[in-house]
Design a protein that fits this description.
Length: 189
């Protein structure tokens, strides 16, 4: 039902994806931590598939999903650099690696970033910055795939664009997280 309503008002191919993809990717990547926590990110999957089937690519949803995971990993790296407890430092780096390489963001969300609160600002800033860069450079996913660094081939001839977005995303989220800091008393296993 929701799909039919959105389709009838022209949102199936995402207005922002064709007119201002940099804004759409940036905003969605910044909001995805909150959508993932509620499970609402799954409501976007049919539109991603529809875009790929109808117009041949997805310029908003898949790039934002990928960049969200990179931002979660980057924030964990920032936490790992700032944490004083050696066990939590190790855990943050390991979970950040998992978000970037394996594409699993839930341990990063619940085990590190949301637990410490302030790193979520780093996640949102990194997602927005990386999304804007990837959108401006024209990152487009041409097939469905996972939200991991290993999914670069799904971007076919726009790999450079999504790679630039990934680098910006990880660096900004790690830097913002590191600069904002967090309560060290909460940074333990």
């Amino acid at each position: 039902m929701l799909y039919k309503i959105l389709h009838s008002i022209g949102l199936r191919n995402l207005f922002v994806g064709t007119n201002v993809p940099w804004l759409g990717v940036g905003l969605l990547a910044a909001c995805l931590p909150w959508l993932v926590m509620t499970g609402m990110h799954m409501a976007l999957a049919p539109f991603m598939a529809s875009n790929i089937a109808d117009i041949g690519y997805d310029a908003v949803i898949r790039p934002a999903f990928l960049l969200h995971n990179m931002a979660e990993g980057g924030a964990c790296i920032g936490v790992g650099l700032k944490a004083k407890d050696p066990e939590f430092k190790s855990q943050a780096f390991t979970i950040g690696f998992g978000a970037i390489v394996a594409g699993v963001s839930e341990p990063a969300i619940y085990g590190v970033n949301l637990k410490l609160k302030k790193p979520m600002f780093g996640v949102m800033a990194g997602g927005a910055a990386g999304g804007i860069v990837a959108g401006i450079l024209g990152a487009k996913a041409y097939v469905m795939g996972y939200s991991t660094i290993m999914a670069l081939p799904i971007f076919v001839d726009t790999i450079g664009a999504i790679l630039a977005g990934i680098i910006v995303c990880i660096v900004v989220s790690a830097l913002v997280t590191y600069l904002l800091g967090f309560d060290q008393s909460e940074a333990h296993i």
